[in-house]
Give the backbone structure.
Amino acid sequence: MLIQDTIFYRADWRWHNFLKYLTNNLSKHNCLEKIIPAEYTYKDSTYGSKKLKKNVNLSTWGVTHKKRIQFARAVCINSPNYSVLNFLIIPNTIYNIPFFWSRFCFFT
């Protein structure tokens, strides 16, 4: 499943503008989508008591670049009580630069 086909690319998810910005800019730099095992790509689940069940969605998306980026990934979580975008870039090991990592959270 492509991340564009999930809730995380729709305007009703809190961090959709950030995610679109990241995916568009990485694709401009000829990054190739990284194949992630299907069991980690998208997941729907429920939590809470039998009377108050709540749905939670999780999606993972990743890219790579043959020269600059060893791996970049976004993990997106959405539930009625919280919304998270976790983004990580691991540069190629030939460059002496640190990881870039950012997490955006919102709790209701």
Residues 16-28 form the longest helix (13 residues). Helices lie at 16-28, 38-41. The CA atoms of residues 30 and 68 lie 10 Å apart.
